[in-house]
Amino acid sequence: MVGPDLDTIKMSLSQSRQHPQVTRFCRQFLQVEHLLDFPDDDLLRDDAIQEHLYERLFAGHAAAFPPPPRYRLRVLKELVAKIESCITDWDKHGISENLMSTLSGMLSQPLPSEMTAVQQKSYVTYPLSTMQQGGFEDAQITLLESRSLISASGTTGLRTWEASLHLGQYLCANPSLVMNKRVLELGAGTGYLGILCAKYLGSDHVIASDGSDDVINNLPDSLFLNGLQGSDKITPMELKWGHALLGTEDQAWNGGDEVNVVLGADITYDASVIPALVATLGELVGLYPGVVMLIAATERNRETFQSFLHVCERRGFTVSHEIFPVPSKSEQQGPFYNDQTPIHICQLGYTGSGR
């Protein structure tokens, strides 16, 4: 087979980088999505696109924080099989030698067992497609996550949940809500929202708070991965809901610094903690009258969500629902998340008539 000349390869590579299907596939891969949308056959047959996928995803220098080995091997095997099945004329097309040699090398290397792999943390890179369209070409957030649902200590805060991604998209669409503001996030988990606000949305300062020691101890890793280590833009803080917000004898809570916006995502999933959560919201309103409160809640259980609304009403909060539906999976350009379960974005106001 006679290969294309160098100029043709360069032109094809430039075009492939801009092809929506190729871009989408690369973003899904780096986000460690289980179900990937592979490019169409006519794209996979293209020599330049194969080389682009190799350079972008599988070359040794492709990603500073690549997905886990078992995942990379599974996807590469499926990619090579799809390329092979779509080639009808082997005189015109072939499979990239780089992809094949990488696959051979990966097959020859020992891999952790599936049981071990599930328990290990993985690098997950979330593309911020809205920010990329707005001028941040490489806008993304990389986190080291536990892909198992719950850690050994019982916390769910070591992975990024759908409501965080959806609230993040809402903030990207409405950046003035947090720009030049001092933000407090409750239940920060992996730090996704705090990093988004501090790095891309222009917040003056972000407090990434959580009640779990494991989560607080892991937040510095998240900050390091996103170039925020040592930054005065974001501060981890332990904050347990329902406990009084206390300062010292000399200073008020948080050193007396203002909080303009309170964020929370996927923090209403457990009905037993909702009273403590709402009590803390009430104390924050007392400290910072006029503070804006946005809570994103995934409605996995209708009764639990209704419990949140009921407790808010009883404590003097009004809840308004922002109109921001979850886009279908086919419309999502990154980050990618479940489109089958409703996610409510609620803005809380305070009437002062709670009981």
UniProtKB/TrEMBL annotation:
It comes from the Eukaryota. Keywords: Methyltransferase, Transferase. Pfam families: Methyltransf_16. GO terms for molecular function: S-adenosylmethionine-dependent methyltransferase activity. It comes from Bombardia bombarda. This is Methyltransferase-domain-containing protein. The keyword Transferase applies. GO terms for cellular component: cytoplasm. GO terms for biological process: methylation. InterPro entries: Methyltransf_16, SAM-dependent_MTases_sf. Gene3D superfamilies: Vaccinia Virus protein VP39.
